[in-house]
Amino acid sequence: MTLAKPRIKADRLTPVLGIATLLLMLAGLYIGLSAPPDVNQGTLVRLFFIHVPAAWLSYLAYGGTGLCGLLYLFTRQRRFDRLSASSAEIGLLFTVSTIIVGMMWAKPTWGAYWVWEPRLTTTALSLVIYGGYLLVRSLIEEPERRARISAVIGIVGTLYIPVNYMAVEWWRGIHQTQTAKLLGGLGFAASPAYGIALSIMTVAFTVLYFYLLRVRGKIAVMQEAREEREFEHVSGEAATETGAAGVVARG
Amino acid sequence: MDKFSGYVIVSYVVTFVVLFGYLGWLWWRLKQEQSDSEQRER
Asked: Which residue segment(s) compose the domain that A197 sits in?
């Protein structure tokens, strides 16, 4: 049995994605921060340009976790498991960011940092789902079993996306309805003056997701190779001990 | 600048601290794995 070496090819796409993210973000921030204040919310409207794209990125990441989990179950290729885990970690991070910015928005508009209403509650639940996903991964050592179980959790967890997106429609809550309506006819529920900055920032966060996914995926390849080396080392030691015990018994 | 500017500044700072913090953590993990891999090869 040979040791699996990490196959890290010269990667040109990742730096391109990183530079594209940076340029798009600078453009989006410039346009967003120089946009006129809202009549009712004043400069608070500028939270729009980071809160919505961060929430979008978390949807994208959780969707990626489910999709890669599904692809893993069909193909049993380990790269889908690595991508699935990487995507969950990114999704979790941006959910935290979405929640913090949301709380900063909630305090001056609702009078409280946190309200247990449907959108916020389902968002908080996603931390439990994907935190649990990563916890389960850390508890299972056997790679195939870990990949299989986490793929199932990832697929089921993807249900969070439609539930969270539609929470503001299905249940009465304090959170405003969707800014960008994607179902039943496209619509944008904000001044067009903010539309350009929001679009650029959303594209920037989308590119950022793919950048982070590639970097995190590269680390996952190396971690997996290290795990295999450690496994080989442990099995080698166990085989030596068994052999030695056999010699002693025969002796 | 208005009475809400503090919330806006804190939000932008937190978002980018989280992002760059994560990038830093990724970079650190990448270096750890690379040095581990190099040590094994030697």
From this structure: 13-221
